[in-house]
Write a structure and sequence with these properties.
Glutaredoxin; two-stranded antiparallel ribbon; globular
Length: about 110
């Protein structure tokens, strides 16, 4: 996704990454890869749970390796703070930049 930041910037879209990793791990990853986006740590999974993308033992179809982790997901949130589009992925599934730009043009 970060390789497409210039496309998102042209559309006036701000990319924020939220992860349940420890803050120091996120900081190291950000600077090691020279990412120009904001990272937010969600150690308790509060945001992941609020957006219904948190896996736990009660989650249908969870695998043992992903218990207590968030499902890779993308959300478009408008200026009013409302989710207008979402893409809930899997471990290997990510939306294309074309699909995201199509959603941006349609919903924002």
């Amino acid at each position: 996704m970060t390789e497409n930041l210039s496309k998102l910037k042209e559309l006036n879209i701000k990319l924020i990454a939220i992860a349940i990793d420890l803050p120091d791990k996120l900081i190291k990853m950000k600077y090691k890869n020279n990412f120009k986006i904001q990272f937010i740590t969600d150690r308790a999974g509060r945001l992941s749970k609020a957006y219904h993308v948190f896996l736990d033992r009660k989650s249908a179809g969870h695998d043992e390796l992903q218990i207590s982790h968030a499902i890779p997901s993308k959300f478009l949130i408008n200026k009013g703070g409302h989710v207008v589009w979402q893409y809930i992925g899997t471990k290997e599934d990510r939306p294309s930049i074309e699909l995201i730009i199509e959603a941006i043009n349609k919903y924002l």
